[in-house]
Amino acid sequence: xxxxxALLALAAPTTMLAQRAxxxxxxxxxxxxxxxxxEMNALLALPNITRDTxxxxxxxxxxxxxxxxxxxATRLLEVSGGPPVVYGELKATKAxxxxxxxxxxxxxxxxxxxxxxxxxxxxxxxxxxxxxxxxTPLPDSGRLDPEGRIFxxxxxxxxxxxxxxxxxxxxxxxxxxxxxxxxxxxxxxxEESESVHLEQTLRTHAALLxxxxxIFCDSPIHASRQLQVxxxxxxxxxxxxxxxxxxxxxxxxxxxxxxxxxxxxxxxxVTSLRDADGRILVKGFQDDVTPPTPKEIAAARALPRxxxxxxxxxxxxxxxxxxxxxxxxxxxxxxxVRGIRVGNVEGAAANAIATxxxxxxxxxxxxxxxxxxxxxxxxxxxxxxxxxxxxxxxTDQERLTHRKVVRLVWGGGDEATRVSADSPLATALLGxxxxxxxxxxxxxxxxxxxxxxxxxxxxxGVPLIVFPIxxxxxxxxxxxxxxxxxxxxxxxxxxxxxxxxxxxFWPRTTP
Length: 511
Ligand SMILES: [Zn+2]
Known about the structure:
- By secondary structure, the protein is of the alpha/beta class.
- It folds into two domains: about 1-235 and about 415-505, Zn peptidases (Aminopeptidase), CATH 3.40.630; about 235-320 and about 330-410, Alpha-Beta Plaits, CATH 3.30.70.360.
- The protein has helices at about 1-10, 15-20, 25-30, 35-45, 55-70, 155-175, 200-205, 250-255, 260-275, 295-300, 305-315, 320-325, 325-330, 370-385, 395-400, 425-435, 455-460, 485-505, and strands spanning about 75, 85-90, 100-105, 125-130, 130-135, 150, 180-190, 215, 230, 230-235, 235-245, 250, 335-340, 350-355, 355-365, 385-390, 405-415, 415-420, 440-445, 465, 480-485.
- The protein is globular.
- It has 18 helices and 21 strands.
- The chain is about 35% helix and about 20% strand.
- Helix 6 packs across helix 18 (about 485-505).
- Strands 1-2-7-3-8-20 form a six-stranded mixed β-sheet, with helices on both faces.
- Helix 15 (about 395-400) links the parallel strand 16 (about 385-390) and strand 17 (about 405-415).
- Zinc ion binds near residues 104, 157, 158, 191 and 218.
């Protein structure tokens, strides 16, 4: 909460975007705000808790109906055991390019009693008064406070883009425009459950999904409230490890300096993997790391810098690598210690040498690194450092015959993706967005977190760019999830500009 407040200080004037957007689209939206919100609220009133098969199907059917009403050729893509993907196509006359728009309609589980009003599926329009969000009835006509928000599960993450896309199509039609590229829509219902059937769906329908690239409409925008184009995501991989000491806890006075101490061993192991400045020390690790290009570094440096506001809020006297910029640090691979557990502390502390210690680690990957290769390198590094590596619980015999034993349990991993700002899809999207804004849109070379974007690139062989619209403080996955109306309006403007102007900025390839 405190972080969000500080970052608001960076916020750009909210009217800037609207003034630059295509005037007819903006005017159309201004006279249809209440209708758009009512349509969104009807969708938000359908419970969409991930894995709730019946509820998700009601959502899919409702979204399909909204699409059909717009003349989109719509069908449900079914896989056994998973919720349907709502798929649609809208062909543009004489278009030679096709993009696919991704959003997801499922949401995280809710604890209704924690929510203001106690009803996450009764969408509430609220405006802020004296620091409190106050329920406000939707008027029958007129404009809505753009700082007002709709509160409901799924509002920010991730039904708002679906509504914004459909409203943009309405606005284009009503203002006599037409899309300049063929549009395909892929609205998933399983994103909050690790997209278990996504790869299967993409494989099964690869021909149907043929395109020049995907626009992935999920996640929140920049904390400065400015729209952004996110060209990459980092990959991820988890590791749980256990190092072993004596088979029973020992008196630290009688046996200290003699029995190996798991607390010391786990510290030694972790610091052998990574130094205090984030450099990963695993031999060969850097070989697969494509260094950020000068252009990517320049793009990261050009972004608004939340660094000092964050430092204030987080009470940090300094940050890693000599206070290097956050946006630049995200261009690099990372190794984060999620937790270390050994023995007990404070009131529960005992003068004992523990039997084992555990650490939980997550790696963040950059392009060209694969989870499989990370695994090989880390295991070779540990072996070279005298560790006996096992993947099952260490046996008595293993503990007896090796000085240092570590058990590694690897989690599944996602690879990173990163699209060059010079690629055709990025050139077209950036061109259309720059034109709409009348200034360069924020170009984020990569987000720090991970999304399953690699599965799209691998399965379909096409680039993917993340284009979020939700406010950064949308409480996604938490209580009181919301969408700020100005973000919805900006999203509509952006999608309208994207659909109508993309082809104009698409580089022509000479035959
Ligand atoms: Zn999401």
